[in-house]
Amino acid sequence: xxxxxxxxxxxxxxxxxxxxxxxxxxxxxxxxxxxxxxxxxxxxxxxxxxxxxxxxxxxxxxxxxxxxxxxxxxxxxxxxxxxxxxxxxxxxxxxxxxxxxxxxxxxxxxxxxxxxxxxxxxxxxxxxxxxxxxxxxxxxxxxxxxxxxxxxxxxxxxxxxxxxxxxxxxxxxxxxxxxxxxxxxxxxxxxxxxxxxxxxxxxxxxxxxxxxxxxxxxxxxxxxxxxxxxxxxxxxxxxxxxxxxxxxxxxx
Length: 252
Ligand SMILES: Nc1ncnc2c1ncn2[C@@H]1O[C@H](COP(=O)(O)OP(=O)(O)OP(=O)(O)O)[C@@H](O)[C@H]1O
Ligand SMILES: [Mg+2]
Known about the structure:
Keywords: ATP-binding, Nucleotide-binding, Transport. The protein is an alpha/beta fold. The protein has helices spanning about 45-55, 95-105, 110-120, 140-150, 170-185, 195-200, 230-235, 235-250; strands at about 5-15, 20-30, 35-40, 60-65, 70, 80, 155-160, 190, 205-210, 215-220. The chain folds into 2 domains: about 5-80 and about 155-250, P-loop containing nucleotide triphosphate hydrolases (Rossmann fold, 3-Layer(aba) Sandwich); about 90-155, no CATH class. The chain contains 8 helices and 10 strands. The strands form 2 sheets. Strands 6-7-8-3-9-10 form a 6-stranded mixed beta sheet, sandwiched between helices. A 4-stranded antiparallel beta sheet has the order 2-1-4-5, with helices on one face. The chain is globular. Magnesium ion binds near residues 47, 48, 84 and 160.
């Protein structure tokens, strides 16, 4: 197996009231090609910081992130990012938002339309394709951001609490859709969540972080088969792993 995303001793400091603050302390992690990792940890432990550095949107103070062996130098089309705060262009409709990356990729109009249609339908927003973001609920905005990231067909998905604002049913549906595309197209996924069940249900490995300073605490292998099903979710093996993750996160 080859490495796809490598965090090499990534450190990030911020100046808070003229004092240096360690948001991320020597974070190292090797994500394999085609692997699905989830990241959990208390608020402020540096999850978004790590993801934004991998996305090329933030510079590390020390260390580096490698994508396919090459140091990250800004954002790239092979990395699809879904932000914690759904970042939609407010002046564009749902359809135009989803088509945005495809336009940059140089897809012709008819093809853009067709791809956008497919992903808007996937996230259940067909009736709102021509609406502006301000007319959507939080969960609908989030689904639009998901469609936009999926549409450009990235090999790496960097997802920062993508399903956080969704109702339980939509959330489970989108988890299963994500797993389905992931196993079919072998993408590499780094997925941040606060939900321990979600973290275990989706992942090959759960990365547990600790705060003050933000750092890697523990990695728990999820040795459960795919496709993940409701049966697996209710199995004693699932519960056992879930409890270990829960303990590692909340007994820090
Ligand atoms: N631009 C910034 N300037 C100053 N401090 C920052 C900045 N961005 C993040 N931080 C600090 O770095 C720490 C890590 O932030 P980060 O957003 O990575 O946490 P997180 O694990 O994603 O938390 P949450 O679960 O609440 O989203 C926090 O203490 C935060 O206050
Ligand atoms: Mg965050």
